[in-house]
UniProtKB/TrEMBL annotation:
It comes from the Bacteria. InterPro entries: DUF2165_transmembrane. Keywords: Membrane, Transmembrane, Transmembrane helix. It holds the Pfam family DUF2165. The lineage of its organism: Bacteria, Pseudomonadati, Pseudomonadota, Alphaproteobacteria, Acetobacterales. The chain crosses the membrane at residues 65-84, 105-128, 140-159. This is DUF2165 domain-containing protein.
């Protein structure tokens, strides 16, 4: 039972994280919008001509990208909260019932890992050269979130046997 409660608590922590992130981005839209804007515009990178063709400078596309990020965060939170409820309901059941209940949590954790791994480290970090920016580099924060989410995903994904 302790192992199950640990998995539920960690999933709940990640659900709360994504809830607060989405809420913060909705209620303080401008702060992180500036981050997205600078990363996409690549205006604080080394400005090497070999990569500057990747820059997106259209404000409409900046808003579209940011709205997509917020929607991804909110959808991740919803999946995780559904996962928490399913895990909580299955906490005293059989191993088969527990394993079957993990689906939404695993999907939510995977969505979160994709946001920070693919979205922030791969797309923003490498494609838009975010790593070159001193002012608008979110790779360290993304790595912290990805570590937390990834460890939780590994923990929750481990199948139980009778």
């Amino acid at each position: 039972m302790a192992l199950r409660l640990s998995r539920i608590a960690l999933t709940k922590s990640v659900a709360l994280l994504f809830t607060l992130i989405a809420f913060g981005n909705l209620t303080d839209y401008g702060t992180n919008f500036a981050f997205v804007q600078h990363v996409l515009a690549m205006d604080t990178t080394f400005r090497s001509p070999g990569v500057m063709w990747r820059a997106i400078t259209d404000p409409t596309l900046h808003h579209a990208a940011y709205i997509l990020i917020i929607a991804w965060e909110a959808a991740t939170a919803v999946l995780l909260w559904a996962g928490v409820m399913r895990l909580w309901s299955a906490r005293g059941g059989t191993a088969a019932a527990w394993n079957a209940a993990r689906g939404p949590a695993i999907l939510g954790l995977t969505a979160g890992a994709l946001l920070y791994g693919l979205g922030f480290l791969v797309v923003a970090g490498e494609w838009f050269s975010m790593w070159q920016s001193r002012e608008w580099n979110g790779q360290a924060s993304a790595a912290i979130f990805l570590t937390f989410i990834g460890l939780t995903l590994i923990h929750v994904s481990a199948a139980e046997t009778e």
